[in-house]
Amino acid sequence: MNKKASQRNQILIDLIHQKKWPYLGAIISVGIASYFMFLVPTIGKLVIDRVITEPRVHNGDKIDAVISWVGGPDALANQLWLAGLAIVIVTALSGLFMYLKDYLAAGACETTVRELRNKLYHHLHHIDERYLNNADSGDILQRCTSDIDTLREFLTMQVMNIGRTIILMAVVIPLMFMQNAWLTVLSLILVPVVLYYGMVFFVKVRELFQKVDEAEGELTTIVQENLTGIRVVRAFARQDYECEKFDEKNARYSDLNYKLICMFANFWSLSDLLCIAQSGIVLIGGGWLTAQGHISFGTYFAFIGYTNLLIWPIRQLGKELSEAGKATVAIGRIQEILEAPEEEELQNVTPLPDRIMGAIKFENIHFQYDKDRPVLTDVSFDVAPGETIAIVGPTGAGKSTLIQLLMRLHDYEQGSISVDGIELSSIARKDIRHQIGTLLQEPFLFSRSLRENIKFSHLEASDGAMVHSTTAAAVHHTIESFQGGYSTVIGERGVSLSGGQKQRVTLSRTLLNTPPILVLDDTLSAVDASTEQKIISALHEKKGEQTLLIITHRISVCQKADRIIVMQDGRITDQGTHNELTHRDGFYNELWEIQSDQKDQFESEIKVTV
Ligand SMILES: Nc1ncnc2c1ncn2[C@@H]1O[C@H](COP(=O)(O)OP(=O)(O)OP(=O)(O)O)[C@@H](O)[C@H]1O
């Protein structure tokens, strides 16, 4: 067994081990139920041999004692309903223990799967940023939903059925041998073939299952992407193109499923044939042995019953094993996520006060995502507590990366970053993130009420504080104009709000928490100039209370900053106030001239029109 397979088994063993007592109870119940199942044909045999047929068998054993107790063979022959009642009672007891098995197993399985789901969800929230950047969200979604369901089915159905069949064989086969060894051999002669065929099928089908799962993942990804980006598709009138792409994936998924169904059809028909052949062998062989007087008629009757009792579950074993193949693929895929590294946490972290001052220092920072592709080179700058810094630069200059390093979404390898004089790499990730409020380029809102979305940053905040933050973000009146006000539930990713409204809601969410450091990553790009000014003024009211880093392309925002940092190609190429930078050549001055020209042109066009 290779390492991966043994790790997969280990996950399963660990999961089952956590609930060993209910599982053990289920196994014992199956054992008892199997014994009662064995008793049904055995009662038939005893009645035939000791009551119905002549000459009657007398062994002087406990069975004879029971027969005498109910009035002897003749009396029993006149009251055969008693034997029928015994069969009903034994069958009912067998059913009762099977129910107990299902009850214990279902409880244990559900808890096991729920714990695994929680473990996976918790892990996803702590997984390393690099893994998330490269991961395919549709695929992860599938692993967390349908793969978990496959595993659940495996634990509730397959493990129990496989266990049940093995226990049934372990209980019934020795009891059959005790009655007649040759007939037992005859009754089981095709069992190895049925089992082997099931195992071969199981190995073959596993590979195909993996392909089907992958194809399903691709299909989920394409649906999810298209739902998220449906407006982009419509804007470019690319519906047909996307439908074609979907059809391709859909066809592949269907073809693979069809192949799988065909394989199963072959398996069922051939295994049915094998099972019927096994029953036929017992019928013919047992009939001959009875005719020759080697076995009693009752034994013949009982062995037909035993064979039927065993062969069908054994045939089912092939199916269960093949389903188990599907589960091992699912476990492997879940395991891949569980093995993805989590964000590393330090053993000895430097604790932060409840509220830091907000001083930031970058010293000779070098950083790259991929080998030999430097994104930040020798970046150094200082920010005093309460200072407002604007960061400008062309696209791809590394501005967002700077912020991601500050939030410890990635770790720097060269240089130093400190917050209030404490080296960032010695601070726990969650501690530093508590101190920084961030508004990312892409506003994200949950499909919950506006109130829940805004209070996400500060769950205990009062409604008054919430209204204060929405007023500062210039969105309070918009929210009040909705029929449901703050209770309005917004669609997935806030689709019922405009881009600017979404940004303002996310801004109010960040403002509610008043963290000592606030970062706006190109957040104001989707709001109009007057709203932008309102928001900037609101932020300026708190000037000095929090350190403000604003990544922006707008000169109007930079003008209000204490200092502007200019970034180009991963380096800081200039810094200073608006006045200083507009009096020397460089990127900022060019940006200023372009935006001033545009403003002048716009104003003169308005004058002409008026
Ligand atoms: N997760 C990532 N993995 C690999 N490369 C990345 C990743 N994120 C960003 N980059 C690369 O790093 C460089 C800097 O990206 P960054 O997002 O920091 O730029 P930016 O200045 O914020 O750009 P913009 O103004 O367009 O947002 C770019 O070349 C980008 O392709």
Give me the secondary-structure topology.
Blueprint: H1 3-17, H2 20-52, H3 62-69, H4 72-78, H5 81-126, H6 129-134, H7 137-144, H8 146-179, H9 181-187, H10 191-228, H11 230-235, H12 239-291, H13 297-339, E1 360-368, E2 374-383, E3 388-392, H14 399-406, E4 414-419, E5 422-423, H15 429-435, E6 436-439, H16 450-454, H17 463-472, H18 476-481, H19 499-512, E7 517-521, H20 529-541, E8 547-551, H21 555-559, E9 563-568, E10 571-576, H22 578-582, H23 587-609
Parallel strand pairs: 3-8, 3-9, 6-7, 7-8
Antiparallel strand pairs: 1-2, 1-4, 4-5, 9-10
Helix pairs in contact: 1-13, 2-5, 2-8, 2-13, 5-8, 7-10, 8-9, 8-13, 10-12, 10-13, 12-13, 17-19
Bound molecules: adenosine-5'-triphosphate (ATP).
Adenosine-5'-triphosphate is lined by residues 133, 369-370, 375, 393, 395-401, 441.
Count the domains: 2
Supply the CATH architecture of the largest domain.
Up-down Bundle
Number of strands: 10
- State the shape: elongated
Number of helix segments?
Answer: 23
CATH fold node name of the largest domain: ABC transporter transmembrane region fold
Instruction: Name the CATH superfamily assignment of the largest domain.
Output: ABC transporter type 1, transmembrane domain
Q: What is the residue-mean pLDDT, rounded to a whole number?
A: 84
Find the structural class using helix and strand composition.
alpha/beta
Q: What is the C-alpha radius of gyration, as a whole number of Å?
A: 37 Å
Profile the largest sheet: 6 strands, mixed
Low-confidence stretches: none
Ligands, deduplicated: adenosine-5'-triphosphate
- Please report the first level of CATH classification, the CATH class of the largest domain: Mainly Alpha
Distance between the termini: 83 Å
State the helical fraction.
55-70%
Instruction: Provide the β-strand percentage band.
Output: 5-15%
Give the strand order of the largest sheet, numbering strands 1, 2, ... along the chain. Answer: 6-7-8-3-9-10
Protein name: ABC transporter ATP-binding protein
Keywords: ATP-binding, Membrane, Nucleotide-binding, Transmembrane, Transmembrane helix
Domain ABC transporter: 360-594
Domain ABC transmembrane type-1: 24-326
